[in-house]
Amino acid sequence: MRFLRIVKFDFGNIFKNSTLLISNTVIPLILIGLMGFVTQSFFGNGIMSSYDYYGVSMVILSALLIIMTATNAFMEGRVKQANIRMIYAPIPKFEIYLSKIISTYILGTLAFSSILIIGQYFFYINYGGTNLPYILLIVNMLVLFGSCFGTMMCCLLGDEEKASSISQLPVLLFSAFGGIFFSVYGLGKMVAAISCLSPVRWIMECAFRIIYDNDFALLLPVTFSLLGASIVCIVICQLTFKPEEFTC
Amino acid sequence: MDTIVSVSNLEKSYHSKKAVAGISFSIQKGEIIGLLGPNGAGKSTTINILATVLSPDHGEVQILGYDLIREAKSIKKEIGIVPQDIAIFEEITAEQNVRFFAGLYGFKRNKLNELVQEALELVGLYDKKDDKPRTFSGGMKRRLNIACAIAHQPKLIIMDEPTVGIDPQSRNHILNSIKTLRQNGATIIYSTHYMEEVESLSDRIMIMNEGRIIAEDTKENLIQNIGNGITYTFKINNFNQINKNEIFQIHGVTNVQLTGKDLFITSEKNKDTLHSIVSLLLDNGCSFEKMTSKEASLETAFLDLTGRSLRD
């Protein structure tokens, strides 16, 4: 009951933060529109339009960038200061970081599920039609991973700014090599081979195969990899979170 | 009298530096203990250990009969911490703040309502309960900071500089609230940089310096034992020309401290030392802009003990 109250409270704090709300709802839609519009001519009249491509890739990128929301929800200056009281209260330390993970995840899930549904039914972006629930599943797992990863970085570094800036680097690298901004196949075999090392590439591949080929071969590996990575992040949180750092 | 806090040989180091170097003390039920010390004296580390946030390297601590290490959760239920920084959420109302933090202690709705109202009334914010703290003055935020810490009616309250940077009206309100809390049976550890607060509130005063308790007594005894005399403060321009030992040789001088340009000389009361001190300074070519004298007080006692003024 108490834990639910903390989660509810943390969720309320994120929800009332207009910057976080906009960055998880409006910004992804703007990115899809902008990238889709700018690259329209590269896609021609094939089965996949630029809006279809960036509809998937920008949602994946934005879902990953929920890391920033997680770090903000956990250790943004004012929040961190008020959270000191949770450190003094008779609650186990896992409730403190887990509530941030869950509240961030709830916000991300609501935001990105809405984007996918609105994108498919109002903007006619191809999210797989009847296969939409599988895309929702992938994106939600990605949001879970991002929430756990961001919180873990806060536990490791003890500082929101450091956690945010350091987390952005691998996200952007993996995204670039994973084909988020443009298809890497046109850049030669070497780059295409490197892109195989990017987890983002496999998430993209999985989503596109489900949408266009009705191929679910990558669904379970991707889902369980993200779930496994999330669990690892939570374990690291438990091992590294030092409540006393809040008081310093 | 019941012992609320019992600390024995407490030690805590950060890397190779000892922040707390083997301190021992006890606090009885209903006492208000003033914790004084210059920056870096070990006050905050001691407070964080008592708050169960930091683990000691060595020593034994019992709070309300519970062992600090083995029964930290039981201790947390019974103590309230007023942190130095204002730890409230600015975007929710004062009442929601107190309700949320008191709710962490597991109270049912009706009891929680009662506790929230009592806490807000105690700090004089009940009529502002529906306002958001971002509209509050610094003093009101400080009062809300206290309400959030005491709403669960802790038996031991630890206050770490609760009145920093606030207006006199709010300060008086806070000091009165603290007296009321004590009347209601709470035991209070009060850390501050304001000497007059400690003088007006505390039953006993502990002075810490370099991780140790260097004095622990009532205000009157501290002044009598340590600071009995007159302290002359000279604003010196060129102290290099005189040796501190020469001043010590003046009959009646008990202490000489130099902090920046301020030369503090403590002399026994009823000894006519001022003339000799001034002559010595002038004969040695020392010039000073200003000289003040102060009878023995807690401040002069503190200076005597630590060689630093409280705000250093």
Automatic annotation (TrEMBL), chain B:
The answer on whether this UniProt entry bears the keyword Phosphoprotein reads no
ABC transporter domain location is: 5-235
Per its UniProt record, what Gene3D superfamilies does this chain match? P-loop containing nucleotide triphosphate hydrolases
What keyword terms does UniProt attach to this protein?
ATP-binding, Nucleotide-binding
Q: Does the record bear Glycoprotein in its keywords?
A: no
| PANTHER family cross-referenced by the UniProt entry | LINEARMYCIN RESISTANCE ATP-BINDING PROTEIN LNRL
The protein here is known as ABC transporter ATPase
Q: Which organism is it from?
A: Oceanobacillus neutriphilus
Taxonomy of origin reads: Bacteria, Bacillati, Bacillota, Bacilli, Bacillales
